[in-house]
Amino acid sequence: MDLTSSMTLQQYHEKALKEGWAIGHFNVSNLEQIRAIVEAAATLKCPVLIGTSEGERKYIGPRQAAVVVKSLRQETGLPVFINADHSKSVESAKAAVDAGYDSIHIDLSALPYEENLKGTKEVVEYAKSKVYSDIGEIHVEGELGLLLGESKIQKEVIEVNPEQFTKPEEAHEFVEKTGIDRLAPAVGNIHGIPANVKTIDIELIKTIRKHMASKTGLTLHGASGISDDQIIGAIKAGVNNIHINTEIRVAYVNALKKSLEENPEETTPYKLYSSVIAAVRHKVEEKLRLFGSINRV
Ligand code: G3H
Ligand code: ZN
């Protein structure tokens, strides 16, 4: 298979914004998950972002994750890119640049505004000093506003406070002053699946979009458990990049439990994992269809 594409991540972001769809971003910490995502992207002909948080990349190895994704991009010709998701410090983000990541998410949203701005700008300058022949410039995302939760099924109710949502004017200034390529706002989204229904503020997304330049991407984090209608509403309002972690973690673990139960004598890992890869691939395909990103390569 060769779906060779010479478009950069920035060009895919602009294409998604113009055409009204979103690039899927899926978190991983091992090779089985990467394979599942790349298989889904190849079947449906989608550009895709594979993400590793600090914990996930500590486990898989940042250089190893970057090399694996790059080798799959070369082998398949598919636009599959790797993002250093939720890098919580300037040092961590710079280390991901040095490890060969295509995209960096610098998340200093827990810091006061001025410190977030200063650190994010420093990461943009560092990342943009590297230009690669295959992907062009490294793509950088910044984050503004408070996002609660973590990527798991949570027993408790998580209440969001609209006071801590992203303020559109501040978002405009933040993007202009830092030079980021895409912004992750807080619009009612929560990481993981809490006991309450997740509801995002579509009108706020529309207003933030109006305060962004047409080339600036808008990322929706914490998309697991958000209804399909709200996801479609968010894309129509101007989101062009959507993060899923919990739902594919759940698909993975449930399939693995089933595989172990059904094959108690099996000791060959790749045989036990074939149904796990298929389960993750199906979940990823379901999301790629929902995001409207099929046949965009
Ligand atoms: O950065 C990762 C995502 O925001 C994952 O959120 O666990 O709700 O899918 P999720
Ligand atoms: Zn996130």
Would you write up a description of this structure?
The chain has about 300 residues and is α/β, with parallel strands linked by helices. It has a single domain (about 5-290), classed as Alpha-Beta Barrel (TIM Barrel), CATH 3.20.20.70. The chain is about 50% helix and about 20% strand. It has eleven helices and twelve strands. The protein has helices spanning about 10-20, 30-45, 55-60, 60-75, 90-100, 115-130, 170-180, 200-210, 230-235, 245-260, 270-290; strands at about 25, 50, 80-85, 105, 130, 135, 140-145, 150-155, 180-185, 190-195, 215-220, 240-245. The protein has an eight-stranded parallel barrel, surrounded by ten helices. It has a two-stranded antiparallel sheet with strand order 5-6. It has a two-stranded parallel sheet with strand order 8-10. The protein starts with 8 loop residues before the first helix and ends in a 7-residue tail after the last helix. The structure holds glyceraldehyde-3-phosphate (G3H) and zinc ion. Zinc ion binds near residues 86 and 191.
